[in-house]
Specification:
Strand content: 25-35%
Bound molecules: adenosine-5'-diphosphate, magnesium ion
Number of helices: 11
CATH superfamily of the largest domain: P-loop containing nucleotide triphosphate hydrolases
CATH topology of the largest domain: Rossmann fold
CATH architecture of the largest domain: 3-Layer(aba) Sandwich
CATH class of the largest domain: Alpha Beta
Oligomer: single chain
Radius of gyration: 24 Å
Length: about 325
Amino acid sequence: MNPIIEFKNLSKRFKQRVAVNNLNFKIEDGEIFGLVGPNGAGKTTTMRMLVTLLKPDEGEIYVSGYSIRSRANDVRRQIGFMPDSFGMYGDMTVQEYLDFFGACYKIQPNQRTHLIDDLLELVDLGHRRNDMVDTLSTGLKQRLGIARVLIHDPGILVLDEPASGLDPRARVEIRELLLEVARLGKTILFSSHILADVGELCSRVGIIEDGKLAALGTLEQLSAHIMPHRQIHIGLLSRAEEAQIMLQAMPDVAEVRVLENGRIALEVDFSGDDEGIHHLLAKLMAQGFPVIHFSEESNNLEAVFMRTTKGIVS
Ligand SMILES: Nc1ncnc2c1ncn2[C@@H]1O[C@H](COP(=O)(O)OP(=O)(O)O)[C@@H](O)[C@H]1O
Ligand SMILES: [Mg+2]
């Protein structure tokens, strides 16, 4: 294990409000790490401290061993940061935009030309290089933003809600781009309150809530830890409470909840095997319950997240 980022007893308050509350975790070199949590959980505050834009009240962050407090310049050199909203200098062309940021990093003009060619190819914007930034769609602007934060060849990308506001197709494209960037050997830390696809992309996920790390691990580890039960969803035409009482008395049934979302349905936490699931259904049928739907919920991140954050999802 080779941590490239280390959060140590990190805390930040805004007046009485604790935004980040004693965070402790490490990100390994080459990981794609997803920091996931509802709005207001402390994701942006954590990232702003990491990229040295905000000073912690307590604790430390080390980036490749450099302290954000005492070696801020060394830290900045290694990080490309894309904030959740950023100005775009819309009246420049795509090429000029990247050239401008290259100049900011004091990259020589002849080098910049090659670099920009490579970056535009990477983010698949070569065909738009002479178009005004303003004319790009949100998804393309986001890709340009990723090219921009790569311009000084940082080892670490920190992206605050890169998928926010994108349509599903653009979201898939961003995901593919991030995988490609990761293949170049970069470490990626990104935040999201949107859970679709995070699991497929990330090597590990940290779930943050009220400034605290509620869970940390691979998706499989989180699922097993937070959802030790299998979950079965049963749709009924009627008699939900009666079915609840019957199921609750069966072996391996931990809990049965009646769902009230317009349709009549039960959610069963079940610790048995497939045979046991068959028995549940057989018993319901034998007793004449009007079952219209019976399925096992997969242990997806959304479910883990909902469980961890007790439903406080925006
Ligand atoms: N500059 C600030 N001044 C006061 N409160 C802030 C400031 N920035 C963030 N907060 C508060 O800190 C908490 C965490 O915010 P933030 O880190 O932006 O969460 P997230 O990015 O997960 O949505 C929220 O309650 C937010 O209102
Ligand atoms: Mg935020």
